[in-house]
Amino acid sequence: MYKSPKNDLPGQTVDMPFTSKALPVFTDKVNSHSMVQILDLGPVCNENINIFAYLIKKLYICDMFSHLTRALKKGVGSKRWWQQMDYPPGTFDGILLWDFPDRLTDGDANEAGRRCYDILKPGGMVMACAATETKENTEVNTFVLQKDFRVTFRIQPHLNLPLHTRKTRDLIGVLDPLKLVQSFLFRNGLREFLFRKE
Questions:
Q1: Torsion sign (Cα): 46, 49, 52, 54
Q2: Beta strand pairing status for 190-196 and 120-131?
Q3: Phi and psi at residue 162, to the nearest 5°
Q4: Separation CA 157–CA 142 (nearest Å)
Q5: 92 neighbors 59 (Cβ within 8 angstroms)
Q6: How confident is the model at residue 6 (pLDDT cuts 50, 70, 90)?
Q7: Contact (CB, 8 A) for 59 and 42
Q8: What's 75's domain CATH number?
């Protein structure tokens, strides 16, 4: 496993902009296949849709943040809202989780790992972000892509979700059977991870 040097911007919090190191690797890997299909688990972001339109062949969006928020408000069990990810096995070359695992209990994060594994093609990649355990602000943000993989944040006040930060080994564990291939740590308290379906 490779860990990058820390971002050189001192004194940042997790909500400060940063330049992604995982996304260039992710897009290079998935674009090595023809007719690439990527699944973005949200929140929906027009800037991201426009940028990925140039980077990949086909982008699907399933805003699991919104589905989870509605399910929690209605007291709906997780089996019901997981049906939103009911894609055929081996559909996608890549999946963008963003910080979705940070919003899930251990059981649901493990279910996310299993579902991503099932709907990925062999060798498919998953990109995920996670806050460190020092993160206290529970506001949900959209990760907004800018030029050259610069990432800014946009608060989503309508998405009221709990925060479940984890140590790196615990995050890797709950996303099993996906296998970690690369991770990056930034001074703003954010971690990026690349997983693969072996």
A1: negative
A2: antiparallel
A3: -70, 160
A4: 11
A5: no
A6: very low
A7: no
A8: 3.40.50.150
Q: Are 62 and 85 in contact (CB under 8 A)?
A: yes
Q: Which residue has the tokens 């493990």?
A: 110
Residue 137 — very low, low, confident or very high, per pLDDT cuts 50/70/90? confident
Three-class SS of residue 38? strand
Long-range contacts of the stretch 136-142 (C-beta < 8 A, 24+): 137/13, 137/14, 137/15, 138/162, 138/163, 139/15, 140/43, 140/65, 140/103, 141/15, 141/99, 142/43, 142/44, 142/45, 142/48
Number of domains present in the structure of the chain = 1
19-65 pLDDT, tens digit per residue, is 999 999 999 988 877 789 999 999 999 999 999 888 887 999 999 99
**Percent of the chain, pLDDT > 90?**
69
Supply the range of the domain harboring residue 191.
2-196
Q: What are phi and psi of 104, to 5 degrees?
A: -120, 145
Residue pair 185/134 in contact (Cβ under 8 Å)? The answer is: no
Amino acid in position 65? F
